[in-house]
Design goal:
The complex is a heterodimer of chains A (about 90) and B (about 575). Chain A is mainly alpha-helical and about 90 residues long. Chain A has a domain at about 25-85. Chain A is built from three helices and two strands. Chain A has helices at about 5-40, 40-45, 55-85, and strands at about 50, 55. A two-stranded antiparallel sheet of chain A has the order 1-2. Chain B has about 575 residues and is an all-alpha fold. Chain B contains 23 helices and two strands. Chain B has helices at about 5-25, 30-35, 40-55, 55-70, 75-100, 105-110, 115-145, 150-200, 205-210, 220-230, 245-260, 265, 275-310, 330-340, 365-370, 385, 390, 395-435, 440-465, 470-495, 500-520, 550-565, 570-580, and strands at about 340-345, 375-380. A two-stranded antiparallel ribbon of chain B has the order 1-2. The longest helix of chain B has about 50 residues, at about 150-200. Chain B is globular. The termini of chain B are far apart. Classes of the chains: A mainly alpha (about 90), B mainly alpha (about 575). At the A-B interface, helix 1, strand 2 and helix 3 of A face helix 5, helix 11, helix 13 and helix 23 of B.
Chain lengths: ~90, ~575
């Protein structure tokens, strides 16, 4: 492992802070949709409906899973871009 | 052709396929044996991970669980999928960058401690062994109920097949077999679901069908189900009430964190070539899992609707609204033979009544109908998936396919667990702790021998299941959530967390979870030794034993942080290692 210059170290820290920010936002959506819309707010949401499903029920049994999928692929795409921006991508 | 012969042909053909793959994918190095030489394409890896993750419980039991829980069943759907987000964002890319073979290996290196590694191995063994018992049992039951063979014969055939492809093929053989098993499993799950959705709603996609109108009377499936269940004294299907909102919240969170901490799933992300593949591979796993998990709610609700329609074809309360005993369809006879379904004519009217006899508000209504008790005296949840093709009147080859699918689900999960067990013994205990100078060839032999031992132990426990087999699954998730997940997460995101903190945290998380479960389920699950009855009135702050994993994880985090603050700081070279794991390109 070679020694890093101060500017390289600065760039690594910035990369990590940006990564943390993306993770925090993604996890906020993750928790809000599943634990929030699917459980905590399910009762009032059930007065609305989507495609014939009560909305709260739909989030708990369908919508949360679709949201998880979008989040993982978004994160993979966003991080691959961030890796290139900071020149830390593989090969 | 009889159902029996057809089933043998279908199941036999899948077994031949698995063995063929095993011969093609033999392994020769430890890297191939433990992590398939880190050469698996992310989409293929996602499919294999999906098969690894979806066990007999997902395939056979989950839709039944949802059918009886209704809305609250969402806890299992969200819990078992939401964990993949945690894995993809918080663990997979970093553990792949770390680039070793097992989960305890990361914990041992990151916390520069053999003790930490041994604690991780113990958690891994408890989690994986309890989990594998259920799988072996699932293979036996699928054989017994679907193929009319004894549980023993089913279990032995399953053990032999796993033995061939797991012992010789290692992770490489297991991965390629799991891809085939995923295809068998998903085909077997979706074909009956599509047929039933078409019959009931005229819509082929079960995910859309569940929100559509019933073809018969133009009301929404879910509305009609709510109404019928309420008229029979049950709670509405889409209503809250299956469990308290707090417990649903905690159970969901515990299952999410537990899923992310399961070692046999985490290790799958060690098998892809690059870090960007590890990020993507978790997404592909979830795509393949979601195909089954978004179908399951429709399977559960529609099976419930079909079952009630079978028993209650006419208006509720009218004297001839219920089916006559002699008119029960043929599929019920088959399941009565297995003991999973039973009827009893309590009021002697020659007809079957199914209603909620435990609801005191409904008792006077039932009495006014002349009903004297629920006459479906046994209705096993597992029937909902297994009998589905029969209920819908589908041809015999679909029933044979469901048998092959259930067996594929159980075998693929068992193989992944057996590999996690054997590699933690040969790589973490033998090479890591007791015999550091062991050669690669001897380590391979040790890995294969411990795999053989693990298969024998799992087979024995599958034949003679401890009475608590079903309950320990809660323990497996609780352990994964309370011990491994926090240690892995803090290992990556908290550079300052030291050896003492991690060890104290893992022990506190493990022991508190174990204590809480034992208090309500009995010491070491021995019936009658529980301190408190396992009912909501006695739970601490009303927290169920299944939902305690999230609390155990929180205890782990707090204890680890406090102990770490009070003891010597992490050495510089470890901090450097963590820095390095955080960035994809090696410096």
């Amino acid at each position: 492992m070679s020694e890093m210059t101060p500017s390289q170290q600065e760039s690594r820290h910035l990369y990590w802070r940006k990564n943390l920010k993306i993770i925090l936002w993604s996890l906020a959506i993750w928790a809000f949709v599943s634990l929030g819309l699917g459980i905590v707010f399910a009762e009032p949401l059930n007065n609305l409906s989507i495609g014939g499903y009560p909305l709260g029920f739909w989030f708990a049994q369908q919508g949360a899973i679709y949201t998880f999928l979008i989040l993982i692929f978004f994160y993979a795409w966003r991080m691959n871009r961030l890796d290139r921006e900071f020149g830390v991508d593989e090969e | 052709m009889s159902l029996q012969v057809l089933s043998f042909i279908v199941v036999g053909a899948t077994f031949a396929l698995y063995i063929g793959i095993a011969i093609w994918a033999r392994t020769s190095s430890t890297s191939e044996f433990y992590v398939a030489g880190k050469g698996i394409n992310p989409v293929a890896n996602g499919m294999a991970t999906a098969a690894d993750w979806m066990s007999a419980a997902s395939f056979i039991s989950m839709a039944g669980l949802i059918a009886f829980l209704g809305y609250s069943g969402g806890a299992y759907l969200m819990g078992w999928t939401g964990g993949y987000v945690l894995m993809a964002l918080l663990l997979a890319p970093y553990l792949r960058k770390f680039g070793k073979f097992t989960v305890p290996e990361f914990i041992g290196d990151r916390y520069y401690s053999r003790l930490a590694r041994v604690i991780a191995v113990i958690s891994l063994l408890v989690i994986s062994i309890t989990y594998v018992i259920g799988q072996m049992r699932g293979v036996g039951i699928a054989f017994a109920n679907l193929l009319n063979m004894s549980v023993e014969v089913g279990l032995f055939s399953g053990m032999v097949v796993v033995f061939i492809y797991a012992v010789f093929g290692g992770m490489k053989g297991i991965t390629y077999t799991q891809i085939a098993q995923y295809c068998v499993m998903i085909f077997a799950y979706t074909v009956p679901a599509v047929f039933i959705a078409l019959q009931l709603t005229g819509t082929a996609l079960p995910q859309i069908g569940l929100g559509s109108n019933l073809a018969s009377n133009n009301t929404h499936v879910l509305e009609a189900l709510d109404k019928t269940l309420v008229e029979l004294g049950f709670g509405p299907y889409t209503g809250l009430g299956g469990m308290s909102q707090m417990n649903m919240f905690l159970l969901t969170l515990s299952l999410m964190v537990g899923t992310a901490g399961l070692p046999h799933v985490i290790v799958r992300f060690f098998t892809v070539p690059r870090i960007r593949d590890a990020r993507k591979s978790a997404g592909w796993s979830l795509v393949f899992i979601a195909i089954l998990y978004t179908t399951a709610p429709a399977v559960g609700a529609m099976a419930m609707w079909n079952f009630i329609a079978t028993v209650q074809p006419g208006p509720i309360g009218s004297p001839d609204g219920n089916v006559k005993f002699e008119d029960l369809p043929a599929w019920t006879d088959r399941w009565e033979e297995t003991g999973l379904l039973a009827f009893e004519d309590k009021n002697g009217d020659g007809r079957v009544q199914y209603y909620n006899a435990d609801n005191p508000d409904f008792a006077p209504i039932a009495a006014s109908y002349g009903w004297e008790g629920n006459e479906v005296t046994e209705l096993d949840r597992d029937i909902m998936v297994l009998a589905n093709p029969g209920i819908a009147g589908l041809p015999n080859w679909v029933i044979a396919l469901v048998a092959a699918g259930g067996i594929a689900a159980a075998l693929s999960t068992a193989a992944g667990l057996l590999l996690a067990i054997s590699s933690s013994i040969s790589h973490d205990l033998l090479k890591g702790v007791f015999l550091p100078n062991i050669s690669e060839k001897s380590e391979m032999l040790a890995a294969r021998l411990s795999m053989v031992a693990a298969i024998l132990v799992a087979g024995y426990l599958g034949l003679n299941p401890p009475g608590f087999a079903a309950q320990v699954v809660a323990l497996a998730f609780g352990f994964a959530a309370a011990s491994l997940f926090p240690a892995l997460l803090m290992g990556i995101f908290m550079k300052s967390l030291n050896k003492q903190g991690a060890i104290a945290g893992m022990l506190a998380g493990l022991l508190s979870t174990l204590l809480y479960i034992f208090l309500y389920k009995g010491w070491f699950f021995i019936p009658g030794t529980n301190v408190f009855p396992d009912t909501p009135d006695y739970w601490l702050f009303g927290i169920s034993t299944g939902g305690f994993g999230a609390i155990g994880a929180a205890i782990n985090f707090v204890v680890a942080y406090l102990v770490s603050r009070a003891t010597a700081p992490t050495p510089e070279h470890i901090k450097q290692m963590v820095e390095d794991v955080r960035v994809p390109r090696s410096s």
